[in-house]
Amino acid sequence: GGNRRVFNRLGGSSAASPDSSKNQKVCYHWRAGKCSRFPCPFLHRELPHPSGPAAATSNGSGAPKRFADDSGFSGPALRRGPNFNNNHNNSWGRMGANKVVRKTEKVCNYWVQGNCSYGDKCRFLHSWSLGECFTLLNHLDGHQKVVTGIALPAGMDKLYTGSKDETVRAWDTNTGQCMGVINLGGEVGCMISEGPWLFVGIPNVVKAWNTQTNQELSLSGPVGQVYTMVVGNDLLFAGTQDGTILAWKFNAVTNNFEPAASLKGHTLAVVSLVVGANRLYSGSMDHSIKAWSLETLQCLQTLTEHTSVVMSLLCWEQFLLSCSLDQTIKVWVATESGNLEVTYTHKEE
């Protein structure tokens, strides 16, 4: 009856039954943190990893094991946030015995701030992700304002974060403890790492630290805030508030970064940069995307299909993806002439 099904679901042993194979499957909805069936005929726990040939299909569904299972982000039990009751009898998605809370796909603002009073009964998500691909490992608390940059330099056991509170913090990746705070005297607009170098953009300057030698440099030239940076073709590019893209090249003789170029064309701030296919792509508050040759640093094409700020760019195989505040994501592909054209537009309602 119902009690036996609940007992089996929680991992209790029982004699084989005609539907025992069904009972040995992990509930997909439980993995997503929103199973509303009670009792549920499927397992609300992860199956132990078998040994031998069967291990190749150890995700509990009989299907080949997915890449996410080996990514290091997945764990035996999912944690969904500060109000998630991480046990097998949780009432996620349920309200009382029969009332089901239907979750929207929006994150609860109160949960983000750590003070949602509805708990499991909240109709908004208490999770940063849907599905089982990611698990919350830790909260790094310390910044007083928005975090605008995160970087993990190669070979380091420290994570660096920059914020509008005008500080950079270093965190121990093993313990999650803050190891140090650097006061910069200006809001951090962006942060990246390349090799041992950590680059931090603040108003009117780019700060550079060599995390291996502790060498510190200040790269002058930016006018206003530095919103985005990227490295390509041995050049460091920075997109600035006045619409200029500045480039520096490292000189091994002087052990310094020297100005290499100033790319002009945008009429408002440059807020996104990406390198791909021997080109530099820049997205701006002027709603345009520009493609620049990494060899000549000349503008090759201007894309004007977006109607608001181009916040993010991504090169993926032969495609360029762009995300804008006009609530669209556009996929661009190169034509025979080499110019980019929109091949797909996703509209976020």
UniProtKB/TrEMBL annotation:
Renumbered residue ranges of the record's region Disordered: 1-21, 51-91
GO molecular function, one term: zinc ion binding
Domain spans labelled C3H1-type: 21-47, 102-129
Keywords of the record: Metal-binding, Repeat, WD repeat, Zinc, Zinc-finger
Alphabetical list of Pfam families matching this protein: WD40 (PF00400), zf-CCCH_4 (PF18044)
Zinc finger (C3H1-type): 21-47, 102-129
PROSITE patterns: WD_REPEATS_1 (PS00678), WD_REPEATS_2 (PS50082), WD_REPEATS_REGION (PS50294), ZF_C3H1 (PS50103)
Chain positions of WD repeats: 140-181, 263-302
Ribosomal protein listed as a keyword: no
Stated name of the protein: C3H1-type domain-containing protein
